[in-house]
Amino acid sequence: MIKPESLYSRYAVNDLVRNKGVNAALLVILVLSAFLMATGAMVIERLAGSVGQLFAQAQPPHFLQMHKGDYDERALEQFAADRPEIDAWLIEEMLGYDSASLAWVRPATGESGDLTESLIDNLFVTQNEEFDFLIDESGQIAQPAQGAVYAPVAYQQKFGLEAGDELTVRTDDGPYALRIEGFVRDSQMASSLSSSTRFLVSAEDFDGLESAGGASPEIIAEYRLTDAGGASDFQAAYESDPALPTNGPAVTDQQIRIIHTISDGLVALALVFVSLLLIVIALLNLRFVIRGTLEDEVREIGAMKAVGLPDKAITGLYLSKYSVMTLVACVLGGLLAVVATNLLTRSVQVNYAEAPLGVATFLVPVLALAAVYVIVVAICRRVLGAVRKIEVVNALVHGSTLDEKQAARRAKRQARWVRRTSLTSSAGDINLRLALLDLRAEGGQWVLVPVVFFLTAVLITLPTNVLSTFESPRIVTYMGAPETDLRADVQYQEDVDGVQEALVAAMRGDERLTDVSTYANLQYQVEGEEGPEILRVEIGDYSGATVRFTDGGAPEAGQIALSALNADKYGVATGDELTIRRDGEQVTVQVSGVYQDVTATGYTAKMQGEVSQGAEAYVVYAAVAEGVDPAVVAAGLGEQFPTTVVLPMREYVRDTFSNMTNAFRNAAWLSLVFGVGVAVLITSLFLKLRLTRDRSKMGVLTAVGFSASEIVAQVRIKTLVVVVAGTVLGVVFSATAGESLVGGLLALSGLGITQLSFIPQPWLVYVLYPLVLAGAGYLGVVLLTRGIRSADKSMWLK
Amino acid sequence: MTMGDFMPNQGTVTLESRALTKTYFSTDPPTQVLGGIDLTVREGEFVVIMGASGSGKSTLLYSISGMDRPTSGNVLLEGRELTSLDDAEMAGVRLTRMGFVFQQAHFLSNLDVRDNILLPALKAAPKEKDAAIARVDALMERFGIAHVKDHGITQVSGGQLQRASICRALAGEPSILFADEPTGALNSSMSEEVMNALTDVHSDGTTVVMVTHDPGCAVRGDRVIYLRDGLLVDSRELGTWSAEQATQREDDLLAWLRDLGF
Ligand SMILES: Nc1ncnc2c1ncn2[C@@H]1O[C@H](COP(=O)(O)OP(=O)(O)OP(=O)(O)O)[C@@H](O)[C@H]1O
Ligand SMILES: [Mg+2]
To answer: In what order do the strands lie in the sheet with B72-77?
Structure first.
């Protein structure tokens, strides 16, 4: 009596030695799948852990409203007193400086620099007492002593700041020096999508800076609610009270969380997506390999059956090999994932918090890997079910896995096929004809290759399309802005009207600039579900096809265009009417169209007109003349108007989407490298098995007078045809359905993009990538057909 | 008669091998299968190669037909040195000068019987498609398989398939036909059909070199050579085949084989 275990291991060892290449390729694919799956799962868990940890330590507000300039403190107190759902609230006073006002020196080495490169507001604050704490690197609530400052961790990385450096703030009374004590993590402003960042100083220094002058005072009204889920209702209530300060952005904790997850979670999601694709590929491969193995070893299987080994034992023989292989792959992939996760989450850990190690830390990746294992083994078991159908006599005598009926069916199918086709009915090169005939007859057996190339093509083109879309200057159309060269933001200051007037005058007088146009931001009120709400409307000239509308068109007099999120919020579409109010005056306007916008959290509107007085903020756009570098013009204007942010459009776009594009750049590279690698690997693996199966066919061709080169050419033709077919389908899919897929995900994320159209780099994505991919397939076939020329052809007929 | 002298006495030489050896290096230690073979085949001759299992008969056949490269020695076909030809030239020689018949009938399963037979002819002269079709139809008629021409290859019997093999081998109008145990997988009546076909081919003037185990098949040849451990040890002239003398030829052959220890 043979012990099954020893039989299994003997079989497994023999098989591993005999089919080194095939087994190695399978293992690599399985390891990759497991690796990406585990990494994705771990990154998501770490990210959630880090964000959760920071939120737990820092207690961010559930709703906050920023405001610049004067405000009515009594109104805020009255509002708070009337609202039982408020758990705690505070007004945080802040001193805002632009980046050029901040410089640093390192006393030890004399190194120095300034923070001009940062484009966001720098807000100096004292530590809060009840909630919204700034957290130092050890997770404690930072408490700076007099003369000390805690700088944001983002700056630590961006400018290479160190504790002990001296930070000087340019005030009206001259430089005000502070020593950097450490760095703080900011639960509200950690994401780079945030437009400002906070520095922490002691109460004494805060007073010192305030009296020294030169800062623009800002406040944040912050609320913690008894029920965090009520934040958006609370926001509506806040905005319906006209006495409350509202000229800055308003944010709910939900939005903060979304922004955190979007910026860093995208990488993790991309990893999971890639790993799912790879698992599909791995399963297709396994199916192909197992079926091939059963066909090759049908006589052995017949013999085992003949001596009375039960089907289960025979299946077990094969299954044990694949289970062990998958197990090894999961373990290896998991170990690699630990390393990769540490690399990928380093910046997350710095910006947010050291995520605590919990049960979930181990459980999440283990469960992800267990899922991979279970799925792979289950599919193997299913495919191996074919063992049961093998009949002893057919297996032993005819070497066939088919039973009598199946064999008859196959013969009939073949007969029908050969009657329909004829070698003599078409002209052209005989090798080409044979190759195409083969493909048509055996298409089913080749299907693995086009499917893999389809998936790989999707895998490498989608992230690149997303990346180029968010990097393209044309993406401004998703920001509710016209396509032009320069953008100036006049906002958050005492005399916006005056600055705007001077700025526009300067720009109109500059012959390097053309088409200077001003858009004013006005706040209207709209009747929302919970009472009046604020509607930010941009007023300017939209007559010249400046913004792309997903529905309807530009507003004319008496009309309004709404951002997609606003249209959705108020439940209106093109042609509907909306009543808006400002300064007690009420007008009813007709919705002229809907556009996509990601700025101001996506809630904006546009009306035709000209406003140069009394607006909350202005945006001025201009085009540059031929040959003028917008960056130079922007720098000059920025110097002339220090309180105004003037940026080349390209840079503005890059800034807004930098987190997203960084994530996608990594994802794009990763998937290109993986995709091409997988393509070569699978093509080789497939051909290795295919050629073994085609030996007698190649022998016949040799005997009747085909040269090895011609036989190789036939294999290459077949491979290229399926590779190209898969690649083309994949590219077409990602340009059409892929666009809707990504668009749908983005629409769900609440960013304000409802209809994404890719802005691809056509040469790269539709020419170079497919060529690279087809080249990878060709490389695979070249590698595998190399041996054909030198082979002893008679071997193929034995 | 001396050892190593296996020359027939008359006619032009079609195929000739000199000091042909073949060693397989894939085994450890390497296996020398052919130990220096000098063989001459004359035009129109029917040579039968016999020998015990594993003696190197197939290897010899594949080596002289260019399917395998010999380890050393020369092969000349119609005065042309085959061992110096490159792969494409060798393929050309197989296409236009040689035909093959194997023990297992190897066919392309995606083509019907006639297309399989047509394949080499179409490849050799793509322009003369109609002539090739006519020739192939005539061949199939002659060997009694015209009625299965549009059948799939799994739909016809072993004997029919092997006759189709012969048709395919002849479709390119070769000067020499190689057959490796063409009846090895057939029952006796099918064997008879196939051997009749081969005898027919030979009587047309085609040179035939056939490997067989079966003395009943071997008697069809003009000359039988005997291989032992990779060396030609003896040869026997039988003269031209005639059905009337079949029994006598067979007795003669069996006696000779018995002496050789077959
Ligand atoms: N590719 C190979 N590698 C190693 N040894 C081989 C190879 N091909 C054949 N042999 C060995 O060469 C010897 C002769 O083989 P060959 O097939 O020529 O014999 P044969 O006379 O045709 O036998 P049979 O009558 O069984 O067909 C055998 O011992 C065989 O094992
Ligand atoms: Mg043999």
So the answer is: B31-42, B13-24, B72-77, B80-81
A69 and A213 share one domain:
yes
Alpha carbon A707 to its chain's center: 51
Judgement on whether residues A75 and A222 belong to the same structural domain of the protein: yes
Domain boundaries, given as residue ranges, for chain B = 3-108+153-259
Q: Chain A closest CA to B2's CA: distance in Å? A: 32
**Do A793 and B67 lie within an 8 Å CB cutoff?**
yes
- Do residues A266 and A664 lie in contact, with contact meaning Cβ atoms separated by under 8 Å? yes
pLDDT digits 0-9 by tens, A157-166: 778 888 999 9
ipTM: 0.88
Q: Are A221 and A297 contained in the same domain?
A: no
Residue whose entry in the numeric block shows the structure tokens 């087994």: A23
Dihedral of CA A21/A27/A33/A38: which sign? Answer: negative
Question: Confidence class of residue A733 from pLDDT cuts 50, 70 and 90?
Answer: very high
From the list B69, B88, B107, which residue is nearest A707 (CB)? B88
Q: How many CB pairs under 8 A join A and B?
A: 115
Contacts of B94 in chain A (CB under 8 A): 702-705
Measured in angstroms, how far is the CA atom of residue B59 from the centroid of ligand 1?
6
CB-based burial, A200-237: b 16+ in 10 Å, e otherwise: bbbeebbebbeebebbbebbbbbbbbeeeeebeebbbb
Which token pair is A676?
């091409």
- Min CA distance, A427 vs chain B (Å)? 9
Single out the residue in A642, A674, A697 at which a domain terminates. A642
Q: Which DSSP letter does residue A60 get?
A: -
Identify which of A437, A792, A797 has the shortest CB distance to residue B110: A437
- A699 to chain B: closest CA residue: B106
Which pTM does this prediction carry?
0.79
Is A242 part of a structural domain of the chain?
no
pLDDT at B1: 37
In which residue are the tokens 């020593």 written?
A179
**Which tokens go with A660?**
């997203």
- Return left, alpha or beta for B229; rule: phi > 0 is left, psi -120 to 50 is alpha, else beta: left
Distance of CA A729 to the CA centre of its chain: 23
* Residue at token pair 């290859």: B153
Judge whether A651 lies within some domain: no
Q: How far is CA A162 from CA A148, A159, A361, B16, B229, in A?
A: 13, 9, 31, 89, 86
Summarize pLDDT for A648-672 with one digit per residue, the tens.
888 887 777 776 677 678 778 888 8
Distances (CA, A) of A232 to A247, A251, A530, A605, A751: 18, 9, 10, 19, 16
Whether A339 is covered by a domain: the verdict is yes
Residues A551 and A612 in one domain: yes
Full residue range of the structural domain in which residue A577 is found = 494-642
Q: List, chain by chain if needed, residues with CB within 6 Å of any ligand 1 atom.
A: A 795; B 24, 26-27, 31, 33, 51, 53-59
Tell me if B111 and A789 make a contact (CB, 8 A cut-off): no
Contact yes or no for A263/A94 (Cβ under 8 A): no
- Residue A413 CA to residue B110 CA, distance in Å, equals 11
Record the tokens describing residue A738, joined without a space.
């892929």
Which residue matches tokens 């009949």?
A391
**How many independent structural domains does chain A possess?**
5
B133 and A410: CB-CB below 8 Å? no
A754 found inside a domain: yes
Q: Does domain B3-108+153-259 have CATH number 3.90.550.10?
A: no
Provide mean pLDDT across the span A197-213: 92
Which tokens in the block code for residue B5? 């002298």
**Interhelix angle for A708-735 vs B87-97, to 10°?**
110
- In angstroms, the separation between the Cα of residue B107 and the nearest Cα of chain A is 7
A637 in the same domain as A532: yes
Most B CBs within 10 A among A410, A704, A710, A718, hence the mutation to make, goes to A704
